[in-house]
């Protein structure tokens, strides 16, 4: 059993519950003008009659005013629909065994938060995103229509991006007037209630109010509920939108399932440090410029071991000339037969310390390597070539450092703007009432993207054909999961001006993801080269990484 989460659930006052019971007042600002085709709706949902002895179903024809997905957001359209409502809130014959909701990848799904509610008292439940579920007293009934008392377990979860829709196995298609649409979501949720193992239903006399957080403040969305037995979405009306400003100056809730909440700058700074480390290493390889010997100065011929002093031994015929830094130099040192000697390069210098030893006598002389004659000419030519290569390598790495620094500044500014945007978005609330438990979605039906039309064929990296029942496409910048069935692969539409992500589950259960940069504008046949994932992701974050989804995408 999943771990229970109890978060910020204050007891409701009777005044608070009573205020939320009057949803008609909440809807007042959203009633259509008179004279619309088919007449005006008499309420937010179809009214029902409650009988304790059984189930009563009413079928009512009404006109729903909504924003269509293919019209300007300011243009209202009407559609007369027939809507069936059951007093117990949804299909009481439906069980989990008949649900169309099947997660395609084992072990990856959106987990529930579970809450305990005293049924006769009600409560306000707060989900990690900030959504509030306002449950009045006596909000639950059993299968026989009897009001439930005692403790009730409420399960709740939300979905805010296309990969979450896919991972949960939620159908995102919508049919209207024999036209297939794809839902663009402003937020989706699922709610259920149980007492023991018994599934409960909503009480129409004590409706539950949802104050769902959303990333989208547009009014061009309607509320839909899902029939889990058929996969059909039912149009239920409109939600009421409020918010759009900071909540008490606080930041967006950390629980948004959105990797872009993570500041990218620390990672970039780590990359910058690595570049700067490489620059230091390159500078350490700077070739030593040969110096021409001064015939007026003393020098020593020292047999240098290349493995100890590669910078000095790189040129042939190297001598060590006595530096002017020596306060005194004695010619008699040339006449002594020394027992031992050592050579040490001085730090951050072209000079060396040459030490001669005989018994207790030690002589330290500061010297530097020099060349003469042909050895110097050859060394100078060799140095010039090596130094040119060194400079090129150093400049390239320094340019990379500059680009990374500029990227850090730009990404920090972008992140700060995104934080402000998320803070604003996080305060958007879409309020509506539910008349059944299950899936509810704030959606705008949309047609397939346009710009290119191809006959699609899907192959793996070896060119072998892949067999998909359907594939999915996400267009960067839109919160919509397009589904393409195999019967329509010969009419595959997409927008080549956008970044597109394509993936699917093969019939033998493998996840395959389209390799990037394949959807340029073209016509005719197109082979999608897909990478077959041999080791399936185990978490939602891993799935998003494999697909290439970066979290909430900017519009």
Can you characterise this structure?
By secondary structure, this protein is α+β, with helices and mostly antiparallel strands. Among the domains are: 14-27 and 99-256 and 427-443, Chondroitinase Ac, Chain A, domain 3; 299-370, no CATH class; 448-547, Immunoglobulin-like (Sandwich). Helix content is 19%, strand content 32%. Strand 1 (57-67) and strand 2 (76-86) form a beta hairpin. Helix 4 runs antiparallel to helix 6 (373-425). The longest helix is centred in the last third of the chain and has 53 residues, at 373-425.
SSE class: alpha+beta
Shape: elongated
Total helical segments: 7
Cα(first) to Cα(last) distance is 38 Å
- Residue windows where pLDDT falls under 50 for at least 5 positions: 1-10, 23-96, 246-260
- Report Rg: 37 Å
CATH class category name of one domain: Mainly Beta
CATH architecture of one domain: Sandwich
């Amino acid at each position: 059993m999943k771990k229970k989460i109890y978060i910020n659930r204050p007891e409701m006052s009777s005044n608070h519950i009573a205020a939320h019971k009057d949803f008609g007042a909440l809807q007042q600002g959203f009633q259509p003008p008179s004279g619309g085709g088919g007449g005006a709706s008499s309420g937010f949902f179809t009214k029902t009659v409650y009988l304790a002895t059984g189930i009563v179903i009413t079928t009512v024809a009404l006109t729903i005013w909504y924003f269509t997905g293919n019209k300007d957001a300011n243009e209202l359209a009407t559609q007369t629909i027939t809507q069936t409502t059951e007093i117990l809130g949804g299909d009481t014959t439906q069980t989990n065994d008949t649900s169309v909701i099947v997660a395609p990848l084992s072990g990856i799904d959106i987990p529930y938060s579970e809450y305990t509610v005293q049924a006769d008292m009600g409560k306000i439940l707060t989900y990690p995103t900030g959504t509030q579920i306002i449950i009045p007293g006596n909000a639950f009934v059993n299968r026989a229509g009897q009001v439930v008392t005692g403790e009730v377990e409420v399960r709740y979860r939300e979905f805010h991006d296309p990969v979450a829709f896919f991972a949960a196995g939620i159908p995102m298609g919508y049919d209207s007037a024999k036209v297939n649409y794809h839902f663009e979501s402003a937020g989706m949720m699922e709610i259920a209630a149980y007492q023991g193992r018994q599934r409960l239903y909503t009480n129409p006399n004590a409706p539950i109010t949802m104050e769902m957080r959303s990333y989208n403040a547009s009014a061009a969305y309607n509320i839909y509920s899902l029939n889990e037995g058929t996969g059909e979405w039912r149009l239920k009306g409109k939600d009421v939108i409020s918010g759009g400003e900071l909540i008490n100056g606080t930041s967006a809730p950390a629980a948004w399932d959105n990797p872009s909440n993570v500041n990218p700058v620390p990672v970039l700074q780590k990359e910058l440090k690595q570049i700067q480390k490489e620059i230091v290493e390159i500078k350490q390889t700077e070739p030593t410029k040969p110096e021409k010997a001064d015939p007026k100065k003393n020098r020593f011929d020292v047999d240098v071991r290349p493995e100890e002093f590669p910078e000095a031994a790189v040129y042939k015929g190297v001598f060590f000339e006595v530096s002017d830094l020596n306060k005194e130099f004695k010619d008699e040192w040339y006449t002594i037969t020394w027992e031992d000697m050592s050579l040490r390069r001085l730090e951050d210098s072209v000079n060396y310390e040459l030490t001669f030893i005989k018994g207790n006598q030690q002589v330290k002389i500061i010297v530097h390597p020099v060349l003469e004659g042909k050895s110097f000419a050859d060394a100078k030519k060799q140095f010039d070539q090596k130094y040119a290569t060194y400079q090129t390598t150093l400049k390239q790495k320094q340019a990379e450092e500059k680009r990374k620094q500029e990227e850090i500044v730009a990404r920090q500014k972008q992140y700060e703007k995104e934080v402000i945007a998320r803070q604003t978005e996080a305060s958007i609330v879409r309020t509506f009432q539910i008349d059944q438990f299950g899936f509810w979605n704030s959606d705008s039906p949309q047609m397939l993207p346009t710009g290119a039309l191809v006959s699609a064929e899907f192959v793996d990296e070896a060119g072998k054909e892949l067999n998909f029942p359907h594939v999915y496409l996400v267009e960067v910048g839109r919160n919509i999961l397009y589904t393409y069935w195999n019967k329509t692969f010969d009419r595959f539409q997409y927008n080549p001006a956008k970044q597109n992500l394509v993936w699917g589950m093969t019939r033998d259960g493998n996840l395959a993801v389209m390799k990037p940069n394949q959807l340029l504008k073209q016509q005719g046949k197109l082979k999608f080269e897909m990478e077959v994932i041999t080791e399936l992701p185990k978490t939602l974050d891993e799935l998003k990484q494999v697909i290439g989804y970066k979290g909430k995408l900017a519009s």
